[in-house]
Design goal:
Layout: H1 2-13, H2 17-33, E1 48-54, H3 60-75, E2 81-89, E3 92-99, H4 105-117, E4 129-133, E5 138-146, H5 151-166, E6 173-177, E7 182-188, H6 190-196, H7 200-209, E8 212-220, E9 225-232, H8 237-241, E10 244-247, E11 253-255, H9 256-259, E12 261-266, E13 273-275, E14 278-287, H10 293-310, E15 316-320, H11 323-350, H12 355-378, H13 385-414, H14 419-451, H15 454-460, H16 462-480, H17 482-491, H18 504-530, H19 532-551, E16 567-573, H20 580-601, E17 612-619, E18 632-639, H21 649-660, E19 668-672, E20 683-689, H22 692-706, E21 712-717, E22 721-730, H23 741-753, E23 755-762, E24 765-773, H24 781-785, E25 788-790, E26 796-798, H25 799-802, E27 803-811, E28 813-817, E29 820-829, H26 836-846, H27 848-854, E30 859-862, H28 864-895, H29 900-905, H30 907-922, H31 928-957, H32 962-992, H33 1003-1033
Parallel strand pairs: 7-24
Antiparallel strand pairs: 1-3, 1-4, 2-3, 2-28, 5-14, 5-15, 6-14, 7-12, 8-9, 10-11, 13-14, 13-17, 16-18, 16-19, 17-18, 20-29, 20-30, 21-29, 22-27, 23-24, 25-26, 28-29
Length: 1045
């Protein structure tokens, strides 16, 4: 301690050391803050590898058998796999392999890639096998481009815009939506093939043979080597139409254009976007984890301003789904609250200390924050919603050490010491207690940062990390910078009388505090200590009563509070095989309903503003279904800003759903906001087994069960019927006539599915040259039955003579997890009338055991919010346990006792009284941010207890009885305890009272800290002396100081 006192004396006495250290902190922060990227949520890495396989023309059953199972077998030997999720769909397979946390993702990726590339028994028709890491890419904004041009020209224009956007410094990720790949499609009428004795395969061979671009070696001349290249590519419709495919019996050359139609088109008609009723191209601008969303948006805005001036007549650009606005609004909201909190903290300080004294105490905040920015940059942290909350909580916490030090300096000044001695003695006296308090907080937050689990935990862990950084920096500032400033500030008033140093308001304030301390707190503390067993019993009863509010279901528990955004979507799913025209019809019905809703609800909006700004229709897209095709579509509404509109999102959804009416044959229509960040659905239960029919039956019963709850909607499972299927099998005797399975399947595939003759490069885009029979010759069963096959000998026979045809229907997609087939039931909950956690709990207790008994071969698991909540809660409980144990060990070492730390730590569970009743008072549910706030609170409330017990021991060392020492310590520490609590609460009050929609996810966290701290402030001053005295009654405390503090 003597060495520490010498250091404090040196820093107080040196004229420039403290200021130079402060300037260093500010400079390091200033050069770092501009490099910090800004985003909504912190980066949470996805430790997974995805395998994508294209198998054209295959059913989901075929893909499961031929692709998914083989991949699963191949990667089974790879270590550190958590879970393997496979999805078999028509034409393609997707396998996602998740890695155990903490391992090397590069090595894991290479192991997976090696095993997949070693598979040598995939079907010959498999085209692409892609193995890639799953990287997080966040959307920033989308730009809709409309204008008077054909879809082909619109795509070319979008390609040009994409190239120029990617040349901007800030923009690296641009994706074009609304168009499929280009193709040259050759459609041959069946009559022409029969007339000429040709098959699709024959014409394919002719096209491929005359469409070649091939290196042919080189000439090695005396002067140099000259490359030889054969170039006979057909890159235009004219070139393809004039390609010779056969000769007639008279020797006349037959060109492709004579017998077939050749078109330049998009492969998939359903891959299109309508923006406000017009065909549009959509440029989706994303960001990688290292990029700044707001800088990207600024660059895009400048680009569009310049482009509007030079774009062709009639072209319009409209930004939509602007996620960067959410980032900007949330950061501005938090910054505004931080400034308001800082002002309130400063005002609170002025109530107790002179202006110069208060100024230098509060000045520690920007100094600490700036150095925190420096460490954030070098640790790869960003300015985001969660890191800003950490700084906001730190606004009050950072003051605690400074206030304890400043208040103790003031006490020594009141004893008549000079400013230098008062400063050095005041800091030295509480240094051990302050450092111990810092370590206890560090144990709690450190354990929390290291133990957070789940995707939610990966996001929330940022808060304790930021708090550790800020508290560590503030401790250095409080010990080595603040004493110098306080000493010099007070020395200016050293020759003035005590009364002249205080204005009238502060005189009255101090008189009021003294009155509260002596006339209110004192008698209450005296009574509580005198009747300590009764008082502690009443507190325990209050604690149990508070817990019962959760156990009894009065206070609900949920994963996250609702946050209303500015985009609403309707995701439509029809049975596979639904024609595009039918989907378009019902999409128009939904769009008409949205327009009617806009007309009705806009009347109640501020200044009569339109509720719906824009309507986008994205065909071939449904994020919930995970399918593409003519049977899916998404209607997206850009709404009036949530801060300005009247009515809730639930009201808007209810009105839209009502006006839309019934949609026949729709499997599901989900009205929801697109999610940002981690989480999951409120209802998500996975059934695993071998029999798809059993899984389907079980999922149907589960869906019917959930529909018995009020407020549950959008329920469906992911095992859905696929397209109707015709199965062709060879008859006996087909082999004798020259037809085998390979010959027949190849001819059928070429005619009805199509075949690719070649691939050419036109500009920057790759075109496939595809062939198939014309659509009019393949739109009925009779066309298939009467399709003529060509044998190896040239014989032509109808398919029906050599093959039998049967009808069946498979599944649209088959999901697998860890080599077992799965069906997942998902649904949403209207939070106005129901609670998802209660529904899941009730279902687990009352229905799932019955379902398990009925289907013993099925395994049932919780997914979505329930799984994430369990993982994150488990991490928090683990962190809390580790942190509490660390605090106990530290306090036991400090106070040389196993019992006395229990007095200090007993205040932690009792703080839950304030947390619970605070949530009830504010009308909030307990959620993940609430729990994080309480765990953070545990690191705060012990600090005052430590110093109070230290003062009790000081008083007993001076000869006071334990009862008197406890009563005196509460009075002595009243101002410091009140100050630390008031400043922390003041720092969070603006956030707690924030009405902004963007703040709703953070208010429960602030509620836990503010109300928990209010309760613990009272309990520290009353319960700690009682508990300490009770320990003394049983001779369980040390009655000498023993340098314990």
């Amino acid at each position: 301690m003597n060495v520490f006192k010498q250091v404090i004396s040196y820093m107080c006495d040196h004229p420039t050391a403290a200021n130079l250290l402060m300037l260093l902190f500010l400079a390091l922060g200033a050069i770092s803050v501009t490099d910090l990227k800004r985003e909504t949520f912190p980066d949470f890495s996805v430790n997974a590898v995805e395998i994508l396989v294209t198998y054209p023309g295959a059913t989901a059953d075929d893909v499961e058998t031929s692709i998914c199972r083989r991949i699963e077998d191949a990667i089974d030997s790879v270590s550190n796999i958590v879970e393997v999720k496979s999805t078999a769909m028509e034409n393609r397979a997707s396998v996602m392999v998740e890695m155990v946390e903490g391992n090397d993702i590069i090595e894991f990726f290479n192991d997976i890639k090696t095993q997949v590339e070693a598979i040598n028994d995939f079907p010959n028709e498999v085209e692409d096998v892609i193995v890639k890491r799953i990287n997080r890419i966040d959307p920033v904004v989308s730009v809709a481009i409309t204008g008077p041009m054909s879809p082909l020209h619109l795509k070319l224009y979008c390609e040009d815009l994409k190239d120029r956007l990617k040349h901007l410094n800030r923009v690296s990720q641009v994706e074009i939506l609304g168009f499929s790949d280009h193709e040259f499609l050759i459609e041959i009428p069946f009559y022409n093939m029969m007339r000429l004795g040709l098959s699709v395969s024959d014409i394919e061979g002719a096209v491929a043979a005359q469409n070649i671009d091939l290196p042919a070696g080189s000439l090695e001349t005396r002067d140099s080597d000259i490359l030889i290249r054969f170039s006979e590519e057909r890159k235009t419709l004219y070139d393809l139409e004039n390609l010779i495919v056969a000769s007639s019996q008279t020797g006349v050359e037959i060109r492709l254009g004579d017998i077939a139609s050749v078109t330049d088109r998009f492969m998939d008609d359903e891959d299109k976007i309508l923006f406000d009723g017009k065909r549009a191209g959509l440029l989706q601008i994303n960001k990688t984890k290292s990029e700044d969303a707001l800088r990207i948006m600024d660059a895009v805005t400048r680009f569009l301003e310049e482009e509007e001036a030079r774009a062709p007549a009639g072209i319009s650009f409209t930004t939509t789904q602007n996620v960067s606005k959410i980032v900007r609004d949330r950061l501005q909201m938090l910054l505004k609250n931080a400034v308001a909190g800082l002002i309130l903290v400063f005002i609170a300080m002025l109530l107790f200390f002179p202006f110069g004294f208060s100024f230098w105490v509060v000045m520690g905040l920007p100094v600490s924050f700036f150095l925190t920015f420096f460490f954030m940059k070098h640790l790869g942290l960003s300015i985001n919603m969660l890191s800003m909350v950490g700084l906001l909580i730190g606004l009050g916490l950072l003051m605690d050490d400074a206030i304890v030090i400043a208040e103790n300096i003031a006490v020594h000044l009141e004893k008549g010491k000079n400013t230098f001695s008062a400063t050095v003695d005041g800091v030295s006296e509480v240094a051990a207690g302050v450092f111990s308090s810092f370590l206890t907080t560090l144990f709690i937050f450190g354990a929390l940062a290291l133990s957070m689990a789940g995707d939610i935990g990966k996001v929330l862990y940022v808060i304790p990390v930021i708090l550790i950084l800020t508290l560590s920096v503030s401790l250095v500032e409080a010990f080595f910078i603040l004493p110098n400033h306080l000493s010099h500030s007070l020395s200016k008033h050293e020759n003035k009388s005590k009364e002249n140093q205080k204005n009238r308001f502060r005189q009255k304030m101090e008189a009021g505090i003294n009155w509260v301390r002596e006339k209110l707190l004192g008698p209450v503390v005296d009574t509580a200590v005198n009747f300590r067993y009764l008082f502690v019993g009443l507190i325990v009863f209050a604690f149990m009563a508070s817990i019962s509010m959760i156990a009894g279901g009065y206070l609900k528990i949920r994963a996250f509070p609702d946050i209303e955004g500015d985009v609403l979507q309707a995701r439509i799913l029809f049975p596979q095989g639904t024609p595009l025209e039918r989907t378009e019809h019902y999409v128009d019905q939904m769009v008409d309903a949205a327009q009617k809703m806009n007309g009705q609800l806009s009347l109640s909006q501020p200044a009569g503003a339109d509720l719906v700004d824009h309507i986008s229709v994205l065909y071939n897209t449904n994020a919930d279904a995970g399918e593409t095709g003519s049977h899916v579509a998404t209607i997206s509404l850009d709404l009036l800003n949530a801060e300005n509109r009247s009515g809730t999102m639930d009201d808007i959804i209810s009105q839209w759903r009502s006006l839309a009416g019934d949609i026949p044959d729709a499997i599901a229509i989900a009205f929801k906001e697109p999610t940002i960040g981690p989480g999951g659905l409120p209802i998500e239960i996975r059934l695993t087994g071998n029999s798809l029919s059993e899984l389907k039956l079980a999922s149907t019963q589960l869906i019917n069960w959930f529909y018995s709850y009020e407020g549950v909607f959008d329920l469906y499972d992911d095992l859905r019927p696929g397209k109707p299927e015709i199965q062709v099998k060879l008859k006996k005797g087909a082999k004798i006539r020259g037809f085998d399975a390979r010959t027949v399947s190849k001819q059928l595939r070429a005619a009805f599915y199509g075949t690719t003759a070649s691939e050419i490069i036109v500009g920057d885009e790759s075109y496939e040259v595809n062939l198939r029979m014309t659509g009019d010759d393949r739109n009925s069963i009779s066309h298939l039955e009467n399709f003529y096959l060509m044998s190896g000998t040239g014989e032509r026979v109808p398919l029906s003579t050599v093959a039998s045809i049967t009808h069946s229907r498979g599944y649209a997609g088959i999901k697998r997890v860890n080599a077992g087939r799965t069906v997942t039931v998902t649904g949403d909950v209207d939070t106005r009338v129901a609670n998802a956690a209660d529904i899941i709990k009730d279902t687990k207790n009352r229905f799932l055991p019955k379902l398990k008994k009925q289907f013993p071969g099925i395994t049932i698991g919780l997914e979505g919010q329930a799984k994430e909540m369990k993982a994150s809660m488990g991490g928090m409980v683990k962190a809390f346990g580790i942190g509490i144990f660390g605090v106990f060990c530290l306090l036991s070492f400090q106070f040389r006792s196993y019992q006395e730390p229990l007095v200090i730590m007993a205040i932690i569970p009792f703080a839950l009284i304030g947390v619970i009743w605070g949530h009830i008072f504010m009308g909030l549910d307990i959620c993940m941010p609430s729990i994080l706030g309480f765990v953070s609170l545990a690191g705060i409330v012990v600090n005052d207890s430590i110093l109070l017990v230290s003062f009790i021991k000081l008083n007993t060392a001076r000869g006071k009885s334990v009862e008197e020492a406890g009563k005196m310590a509460s009075r002595e520490r009243f101002r410091a305890v009140l100050l630390t609590s008031v400043t922390t609460i003041a720092g969070l009050m603006p956030l707690l009272s924030e009405k902004s929609m963007q703040a709703q996810i953070l208010i429960p966290l602030a509620c836990s800290i503010v109300f928990g701290l209010l309760m613990s402030t009272i309990l520290v001053l009353l319960v700690v002396p009682c508990l300490y005295t009770i320990l003394a009654d049983f001779n369980l405390v040390r009655l000498t100081d023993d340098n314990s503090h």
